[in-house]
Input
Amino acid sequence: MQERDLARVVAFTDGVMAVAITLLVLNLDVPDVEHGEIGNALVDLLPSFGAYLLSFALIGRYWVIHHNLFEHLRAFDGRLMALNLLFLSLIALIPFATDLYDQYDDAPVAVGVFAATLGLAGLVDWAMTAHIARRGFLHERHRARAHSGIPVALGISLVFFLSVPAAFISVYLAQLLWISVLVIRYPLRRLGRALDSHR
Amino acid sequence: MQERDLARVVAFTDGVMAVAITLLVLNLDVPDVEHGEIGNALVDLLPSFGAYLLSFALIGRYWVIHHNLFEHLRAFDGRLMALNLLFLSLIALIPFATDLYDQYDDAPVAVGVFAATLGLAGLVDWAMTAHIARRGFLHERHRARAHSGIPVALGISLVFFLSVPAAFISVYLAQLLWISVLVIRYPLRRLGRALDSHR
Amino acid sequence: MQERDLARVVAFTDGVMAVAITLLVLNLDVPDVEHGEIGNALVDLLPSFGAYLLSFALIGRYWVIHHNLFEHLRAFDGRLMALNLLFLSLIALIPFATDLYDQYDDAPVAVGVFAATLGLAGLVDWAMTAHIARRGFLHERHRARAHSGIPVALGISLVFFLSVPAAFISVYLAQLLWISVLVIRYPLRRLGRALDSHR
Amino acid sequence: MQERDLARVVAFTDGVMAVAITLLVLNLDVPDVEHGEIGNALVDLLPSFGAYLLSFALIGRYWVIHHNLFEHLRAFDGRLMALNLLFLSLIALIPFATDLYDQYDDAPVAVGVFAATLGLAGLVDWAMTAHIARRGFLHERHRARAHSGIPVALGISLVFFLSVPAAFISVYLAQLLWISVLVIRYPLRRLGRALDSHR
Output
């Protein structure tokens, strides 16, 4: 096991996530209409605002999860760094996936690409959490946190992957599942702690 | 109350605000005119330069307020993190709102969206300040600062919300109110200290 | 004099400068030509590559100057923070100014806007250096550095402002002056030290 | 030899690399087609996704190399700072080079520009590694790491430069060489250690 400069890994991660979350605003194009029509054009833009806020909240959610996972890390290896880069390559795709889903919100394929991107990010997050737990990269007293993180990451990932077929039934059902991710952590974390106390 | 890694929260916040403030430049499009006409075209671009500088100063103003608020923080909870993300989602909207207001500066609705975005950011800043004060997240000797921050945040927010109806009377009046935000802090901070000394 | 959290000011500054320097690449548009013509189209793009490298080097130059100035700072006040934000608002304009100068490189007005942006940045840098020296924000043993920084900042600024009228004679003369900024520091720093040793 | 504030150099470097790696997503344009055609349009976009992932992995690879090189640095001079800026100016070009190669993947010139940009970045990385080793900027016990880094940097650079003529034979051959960079480090690092142990 090779220890590395954690601070810089975290700083680079924060940089990529901060840029990705801020690039979401580039999906909001100022309407090009008659000046008297701008009010109506802004109303038409409301779904895009909604997509902006949802993706902002979801990237923010992943950032909080990443923050919690790396907070008490005391070691790092090449595999974790590779997984972290893979995680970031999915997070950096979210501005594209958001724009796609916003423009084709009636096309299940587009909605599915959005869901799959976030689901894969959750899966890589789970792989990082499991790797950290397995290799013992956390201080003894913070082990429970990593274990409780495993069902959180898996659960979030599962919800996103479930929303892919759900999008083919109804796009609204898929959206409902995504929003649930923002609140699902509380029962999942409790589940994680319960599982951990039974070991 | 759960303590968290403050340094990373602050670094992520700085990242988002630094990207948002720099993306403002993307609203300045190089004119596409005959080469002999570029001088006149640049003169026509002056209001856009003004909007750039105003928004740069306002995001900078909010950054200084955030900096002052978090400088002596010694704790953090999930609610403060959620409020901070909400604050950032509004700051990251400012490049869009600036472009909208710059292109439709004669439309009170567009001017109102700009003002409401900044007003909401001020409101969330006030909510963060009040939450920090209430939960005692500051060292004893820095409490006064948080209390003095409450009227500053509320005052700034109020000015922006007042400028929404003001825009329907005159766009210039709204702009005047925004510029006042850049200097209003001095009397407000004094008011905050006065209120605090009466407790 | 009010001390502030210097680390965060520096991190925010680095963030804005890192985003601004990287946004320069957005000025390089992939040519839209027949696939057999891409070689010639890339040759036509060479001046734009040159503008990219020049602006990258100039922002990098200003970053090094800022780094040297803030390296031994031990205090900060509101005025220095305001000057720093003004400095950043000019640095963040450089991607726009570079695109303008690249597209209208035969128009002295456009070349002049580029030069004036960089000249103003140098002037604000000089104001920061002078303010720091005057207020004694440096440790005793690093004072000489601040004093030697004053002619550097003034000299760079002067060269850029001189290049504005020079652009009306010949754009190449203006460009020559800009490139000189990348090497001018050595004689200027020596001058600064000489002036300082005579006090 | 003049010691400098390393932390800030590293933070600025991370900032530029984080922005550059995230800007890669701007090359992925949401297709503008009939809503029923979005599935096929996304399939047509697969090569662009591939280019995105390849460039993300390559910038990530360079980031890890830079991270390893600077991890145990204890000093810095003006030349290393200049080399680092040159390195960053090449990294920041990668989003442009990726877009170029993605749009003209059948044009050896475009493929060659992509390869040359990455090859030059590797060459500058080698120059930094050699400079650090020569000037003794590493702690005694980490010297071996710098020496082992020299063949890694040279080897990566060589592979990219070899892929320039290779692109004129077959673009696929060039791509194969690039992908090899992601795994080549292991034999190269062993070679570096072997060379070092023979001194």
User: Anything to note?
Assistant: The interface with chain D takes residues 19 of chain B (CB under 8 Å). Helices of chain B lie at 6-23, 38-44, 46-71, 78-91, 94-103, 108-135, 143-169, 171-197. Residues 26 and 129 of chain B are 32 Å apart (CA to CA). The longest helix of chain B spans residues 108-135.
